[in-house]
Amino acid sequence: xxxxxxxxxxxxxxxxxxxxxxxxxxxxxxxxxxxxxxxxxxxxxxxxxxxxxxxxxxxxxxxxxxxxxxxxxxxxxxxxxxxxxxxxxxxxxxxxxxxxxxxxxxxxxxxxxxxxxxxxxxxxxxxxxxxxxxxxxxxxxxxxxxxxxxxxxxxxxxxxxxxxxxxxxxxxxxxxxxxxxxxxxxxxxxxxxxxxxxxxxxxxxxxxxxxxxxxxxxxxxxxxxxxxxxxxxxxxxxxxxxxxxxxxxxxxxxxxxxxxxxxxxxxxxxxxxxxxxxxxxxxxxxxxxxxxxxxxxxxxxxxxxxxxxxxxxxxxxxxxxxxxxxxxxxxxxxxxxxxxxxxxxxxxxxxxxxxxxxxxxxxxxxxxxxxxxxxxxxxxxxxxxxxxxxxxxxxxxxx
Length: 399
Known about the structure:
disordered N terminus; single chain
């Protein structure tokens, strides 16, 4: 029996983006994978995003990235402010997509709500409420009122879409419990061929640990991602300083962002420190993930957590907050959790608990969990089939 996607093989999907950084990041990584994979599945993807200049880049035959000139964001200048409402509207009308895909609850969502398109989709990539307002709400008072108002706003934004796509059932349950409608889970996937414990490089581990390498108690820890205040990496380094009083610790800090200089200065107080910027060499990246002893993660507002999932596939156990997508992936069989807004002392205790357990057993269980995740291609196939099915029950496409 033909699938919905087979019935509509040439969809044009336009993502009206906001969080499309110059250097990378979770949303850009996801969209880049969509651009690369759409052609194999018979579809076209166009990403419209703010940037440093007006430019258009073709991606094979199946996609293109259209940037429109926009001012840089003050805190992180690798991002640009999507304030050119007229430009966004004109580009959507120019390309006349079958599916208008939105992932920002701000200006792009407002623009998208005013346009007539066959199918409007909100992809719940980011959790600004969990990142910025829930910590305030935990203190009570005005913070709770602000959080409640923000949930009402985001609920209305998603209500303008024909479907809201989320990465996991846990997030679908949370949103529907808050009154969101038309929420649909399409599990996110990873590149299983790229990540695996067989990529562990003991020589690389010894090189980074240096003089600590021969100490059986030494551990090599990874902190990675966009280096920014909301990712809470400074608190993780402070926790490692506490752990380092009891055992030799080496740290790999992988990523870029506005907090990089500050984090590096703090990390140099550890026995061993190795800083790495974002790399587009995926083989080098996967080798690093497999060669550390643990990932210590700080973000309390992941909606999926590609880094977490890729570490699991690499056989690398996790220390992560008991919140959001991190909670979903950091299960007790292969991870240790700490309270979402814990002080460095509590995070240090979670790290010590992990290192008191057999790392080989943790790694084996982590890999077993990762094998239950779909592949990247399977994710996009399921996503496009959802879009085609929703289009099939709506009015016929305009010629």
